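Input for the complex:
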Amino acid sequence: MIKIDHLTKRYGDTLAVDDLDFEVKPGVVTGFLGPNGSGKSTTMRIILGLDHPTGGRATVNGHRYAEMKDPVREVGALLDAKAVHPGRTARNHLRALATSNQIRKSRVDEVLDFVGIAAVANKKVGTYSLGMSQRLGIAGALLGDPGVLLFDEPVNGLDPEGIKWIREFFRALANEGRTVFVSSHLMSEMAVSADEIIVIGRGRFITSGSVNDLTKSVGGTVLARASDHDKLSAVVTSHHGVVHDANDEGITISGLTSDEVGQLAFDAGITIFELTPQRASLEEVFMDLTADAVEYGSKKTDPARG
Amino acid sequence: MATTRSEWIKFRTVRSSIMGVAVTVLLTIGLGVLITTLVRTHWDQLSSIRVATFDPVSSSLRGSLFAQFAVGVIGTLFITSEYTSGSIRTTLTAVPNRYRLIAGKCIVLLVTTLILGEFVCFAAFLIGQRIYLGVVPTASIGNGTVLRSVILAGLYLALLAIFAFALGLILRQSAAAISVFVSLLLIVPIIGLFFPQSWQNDFTRFEPSTLGVSMQSPFAPSNSFGAWSATFILLAYVVGTLIIAMVLFQRRDAGSNQ
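Predicted:
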């Protein structure tokens, strides 16, 4: 279990992490979602004791990372796949890592085999593609057979087959009861690979919950096509619904379920031709949640001016 | 111990360390052979003063004053390559105790460069005396002060490797750290030349290279410290720089690149 306790990190004038407070539980894949520059990597670096927090603390299984004796056996991490000396071979890299944490030597070949780079294990890491480096990073994270795993943007650089493999792999790790914490800036990726999601923006906590809860919390809309749109709008509004869009094709209502809209229409004697609940996609939820929190968003261009 | 063994694997599995060791051997022994051969062939032409003050020990060890740059590069890259490649993050997640990490690295570096330094200095001395034999006066390793000079010449190389390592830990960039290291050994003495004569003598004997010459000479050269004083002064430089480096390392974030 990872516990983030009122964590704050300031780099000069910028507040990279602003009073974050959450827990990552074992047995599920927890997605850590936010736009680029929102503080995900900083938070992970603080969990791993690489950066010192300005305030608050981060603990893994109740301990600060820096206090652990052989941390690789407790926490596996993939931060940056390229963070390996390019002149060293993959096997020697893992051997040094295993030796530092008193992990048996044979484990190196096991993890090399598991991630599928055993054939190139004696090649210098500098010759690896990003996908191969990513696999080496995963091998390093698994080396100590840890109960807690952190992955920072793990799907970057992987091919579709690799992405499918890693999703199943996260699921398998979580099913074994491990804590799996995966960051991404891609909502669509998190929607398929995570059970729980923590959303941050500009270093601040925005929301958290299961993938289903998140889409529900923002709420869907209901598209209704009826015999009398004006009357329906009036009825809906008087029952705390909000009418967004009214045209010949129907009206879009939020704040009420389709069941409620149907009942209201029946009571008011309006004939319903079509009643469609429209679920917000996770992507829309994410955009909506982080709209104010995008640090480096692209500017909207004026199409008229080109 | 696990940290030290891990760092030893890391040290010997990159080409830069191996190259550094090869260059150290080449410079100390190769230049030693070259210098002693030149002395032998030109012995007749030397002035009587040069002959009277001639030191067969330090003259055969002169190559080590060039090899100091090679051990400097070994020491610097041992830590700066971790920063340039980003592998410092992997290293620190494996060994989060930063004192333990630096202790492990220093033990590996000190032991390897000490063995290397002693090997090349003994070899250069013995080969040099063999070259001198019959023409130039020679020194015997059986003599206590001669033995001390050869041993301290090897220690000088090991201490400079640690010094360069500490500079690398402070600066975290290979080029910057190597530049500063070379500047301290070569440029600072040139600056000293612009000082008035009386200051120059006081200034020069504190320079690392001058301390190195003192350490490898059986008799203290003029305007220089004796061998043991020179050793302790150099040791103070190294320990002082390492303490500064350690304080900064402990305080700084290691995750981001700067």
